[in-house]
Task: structure prediction
Amino acid sequence: MAPSNNLFPSNFIWEIIEEDIKANKHGGRVATRFPPEPNGYIHIGHAKSICLNFGIAAQFGGACNLRLDDTDPAGESLEYVQSIIDDVRWLGFDWGERLFYASDYFDKLYEFAVQLIMAGKAYVCDLNADEIRQYRGTFTEPGKDSPYRNRSVEENLDLFERMRAGEFADGSCVLRAKIDMASTNVIMRDPIIYRIKREPHYRTGKKWIIYPMYDFAHCLSDALEKITHSICTLEFENNRPLYDWFVDQLIMGDRPQQIEFARLNLSYTVLSKRRLIELVENGHVAGWDDPRMPTVAGMRRRGYTPEAIRNFCAAIGVAKNENLVDIGLLEHCVRSDLSETAPRVMSVLNPLKVIIDNYPQEKVEEFECANHPQKPEMGTRKVPFSRALYIEYDDFMEEPPKKYKRLGPGREVRLRNAYVIKYQSLRKDERTGKILEIHCTYDPQTREGAPPDGRKIEGVIHWVSARHAVPAEVRLYDRLFNVPDPSMAGDDFMETLNPNSLETLSSSFVEASLKDAAPGNRYQFERLGYFCIDAKDSSGKHVFNRIVSLRDTWGKIAAQNKP
Ligand code: ATP
Ligand code: MG
Result:
């Protein structure tokens, strides 16, 4: 089942399904599946497919299977299976008892292949890969029959059995469907359905040395599971007649109806497993769950919520033509969700020490602060105040411009949730010119509100008490790529990597209330953005990931740069 919120607005897929139900096709049943190959971690594009398939099942009272389409031993692993299971569950979906593996159908698929041979509709072909390509023809020229196309059923049965038994070298022959070498659809020109590959499979071990091709296994797995609507991306449109052909030859009853939709492309991101693997293997990121990765594991570690990702998938909807979705929309969904749910706290990323000269040395006051400005039900917490504080280095300027509303010579500012303070003096490192600390005085009459003499205080800045604050490492993430569509660079996409996609601040401070907060917790650091406690690196120290900034600063910068 899928969570009942984040519904997709009606679209062409919904309309097809509604029609099918009306016509009592498949007896009015709706069954979908999410069929990833476990050869990498799933990403935001897969999340769209997951939300769609589970969403359809939920909205039409049907069921959605999770099926690992694991027909190619190369690159598949248990680690990937486990990650997919964890990630789909984390996104909020539940497949009940219906977790399936295409590899569980290997015996059945082998039988299907034998059935095709017996019907005179498949043959063992000894052409090598290059020859098969040459014989296949092109979009404009028909193909040529393979010289092995007319082998007898008996000879084919014998050869296929011997392929399975290991009598032939890898690549020396294949089993092909006998369809039509002159078809205008190149995919129908006697496609390969089995090949020899001496590579152990992570589930079936060494039992098989022949493996079914994806095109053969995928559609038949759907049919075996009695899927009613096989939702897939547009690049499989030309494969549909082939899938229908296989199912019609081999399975009785209604066949699954394939419906294609445009895959998600996201700006400043790559969404191909092959490219994501390259990023991981070449060390450009710290693993599949690096918070800059568009993987579900990465977004989860970054602090994105499943709710925000589901909202995003519903917001982009489904269409028949490909486009590039602005990553700003994803960030917007994250921000809107967190603005409702994340408790507010104060933290200082780049600290500047402030001494309140007229505040007693040992005195500590506690301020009761709201965890959310609009939600009293989210409660309050106590924030300690003392003579030495940290404020943001940027919140003080020695020679501020006129419009600057923060601290500077002769200026006053409100400390968020606390007193008004006034600048007095500073101490600098003589050699570097860096400001070491500033001295201020506080106005004791401003604890509860505006100064009684009516003077106006315009700026408000955040702070932490130096004695109480917890030292923290803060990781600021930026887009992984410098260009909106890195895939335009083809195999050179690495050259468009943003070298500044991670900035680590190692001398930040967070307020005392976060001392024992749990990994994974999310907060709004007031005035700074949304942050989450890193779930991996936080033992023995406090590490925070910036989930997203407070506003769409990228949008703003882009607007400023416009002529
Ligand atoms: P590749 O990176 O080679 O494109 P893949 O994404 O096809 O790999 P699969 O494991 O086969 O990997 O994908 C599982 C399902 O997710 C498929 O049904 C596929 O159509 C869907 N899917 C994959 N990428 C996207 C995407 N960007 N947008 C929407 N759906 C996607
Ligand atoms: Mg695929």
About this structure: The pocket of magnesium ion (ligand 2) is lined by residues 37 (CB under 6 Å). The two ends are 50 Å apart (CA to CA).
